[in-house]
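Review box. Two proteins, two foldings.
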Amino acid sequence: MKVHQIFGLLDDEMPVLFVSCSKKVKEWCFKNFYDYVLWNKSMCDKFVSENYPEYKELYNNVRYKIMKVDIVRFLILHKYGGIYIDMDCIPKLISVKENDFKIAYKIAPKRKHYEMEIIQSYKENNLLLEFLDYVKTQIEEKNILIARRVPPGDKWRLVANEPDGPVHKTLTDTLEAYMVKTGFKGSYRLEPLKSNLYAIKRKKLLFLLFAAPIILFCPTNCFINVLKYMIGKLKS
């Protein structure tokens, strides 16, 4: 069985905590005859590009680089199976049953909940891809088309004012008109080839979860309970 960890996507040095926890994970793998794999940035980038090109856009266009780890962990497990463990986590079980599907379950003083810090899965588990597909729809729904270019030249009309509303002479005038109309103060995205302008209204991806250093494995009967928890987080 393979045990996967990921580090280096931020081009930073490994913190002392990560070094210490990773050493314990390696020792755990050695005792149980598990294969340990530490994925770095070039390995992850190449893996996504060659094996899951349909998720390349999602992977490359995350708002924060750390979110790439949240995406590629699902793809790695889908391809190879095994266990993914965050760099600041220590497995507490002596060993685990192979070809199983488990999600980490965090036990804290005030609440108990599922986390994405430790995931075990058999390979080609399509539930992993289904979750990423769900995340893609959430991101796409937050990219709101607000204006289209009106040829010739660089004139623009707000979608809300189509088909015969006022035309703005510049992109700057269009943005100002939209901000006055909606009060939106977020980010924007321009697609020149499609002549579209979007307002980006994103929520934090659910599985961007920063771990406590000690986590327990806990089996789940199916993915639906975890997915319900995730959906609730996305809507909150």
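Next protein.
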Amino acid sequence: MPLERQYKTLTTKKIKMKKNLIWIGIASALLIGGGAFWYFNNKREEERKKKEAELEAERLRLEEEAKKANVSQPRKAVYNDTPFTSKAEGDKFRAWVNKNYSSYAKQIDLSLSGDFNNSFIKKAFADYGQEYLKANAPKTTTTTATGIKPNSTIYLNGSYADVYSYPEKNRRLGFISRGNVGANSIGIFVRNANVSGWAVVNVSYRKGSIDNSLPAYGKSVYMLIKDITDKQV
């Protein structure tokens, strides 16, 4: 192989090696940086938990020594037990406090995880427990089986709906059509009927019936649940 060609080949290999070393260096830096961030972030939380445990142990030790020596201690605030019955419940409250009141959590050294009934969480619960319980209370609704609340304004759910007499439901009074109603309300939802699939409705729209004037206008009638909705279509 000519000397010039050998020189070019060696030069190309050196350039490739340098590029590979550069990329390896960049990848290593990213891995080290990410690992360091995780390590120090995790270590900080571990230190908070350790400090809380040490302070709690020291408090209990001093109380025990005071009892043995029969020496009166300065009066400290006494907090009621938390309502939590497991570490998981306690940690959920701890996380909520740390998220919503981070400065306060740091001030009293409340870690993200720990005992669910020690002095730290008791103090936090005394200060923010009621707010936490209110924010996490289960949602209650007054909706009926149709998913529509009583006294809600209702609309036609399809293009056509039959209307029947109330309370006996033995006569078809007429119908309501999309062509006449459009997007307007057809009445007020009263309640679910005793018969599955039916609802009691106060009709407030006249047009659309067979004789163009519903006899039960403004009064209760029966309609199929599938024909009504509380959302304007």
